[in-house]
Amino acid sequence: MGNTHNDVGSNVTSVTVAQLPGLNTLGISMARIDFAPWGINPPHTHPRATEVLTVIEGRLLVGFVTSNPENRLITQVLEKGDVFVFPQGLIHFQKNVGNGNALAIAGLSSQNPGVITIANAVFGSNPDIEVDVLAKAFQVDIKVVQQIQSKF
To answer: What's 69's domain CATH number?
Structure first.
């Protein structure tokens, strides 16, 4: 099991072409996602791959958001053995909704799917996105943005 003793309560172990060069040109990769009780795999996107997630242990709330202008949230609670598809490029997440650990395996349709974790990208960029830009985008006070940026 991966180390889930972190702020989000999950650990993703990826197997892409970067870890396994033999995947080059095959168009596939995988990930193991371990969840502590109530842990999350935060909202993120894969710019170059569709993801097929299979629950191995536990119960997961999974979801993705459709593209503009609808921005509709599609969710499902998955049990052991259930499968869910996250379309390429859409923001998606998983949350362990059980009191025990959970485990999922994801197959991705690219040897280099990429991952953009939304909060990290927006609030942890280097250099920082200017606070007034984020304050207007999220319609919050600049101090809120500064507080969130300090965590990343």
So the answer is: 2.60.120.10
Amino acid at 90: L
Angle between helix 142-151 and helix 131-138 axes, rounded to 10 deg: 110
- Is 4:11 a contact under the CB 8 Å cutoff? yes
pLDDT at 102 (0 to 100): 98
Q: Is residue 31 part of a domain?
A: yes
pLDDT in tens, 92-144: 999 999 999 999 999 999 999 999 999 999 999 999 999 999 999 999 999 99
Residues 76 and 149 in one domain: no
SS3 150: helix
pTM, to two decimals: 0.93
Judged by DSSP in three states, 8 sits in coil
Edge-to-edge strands of the sheet including 40-45?
A: 73-78, 60-65, 92-96, 40-45, 116-117
Rounded distance, CA 19 to CA 12, Å?
13
Q: Do 14 and 66 sit in the same domain of this protein?
A: yes
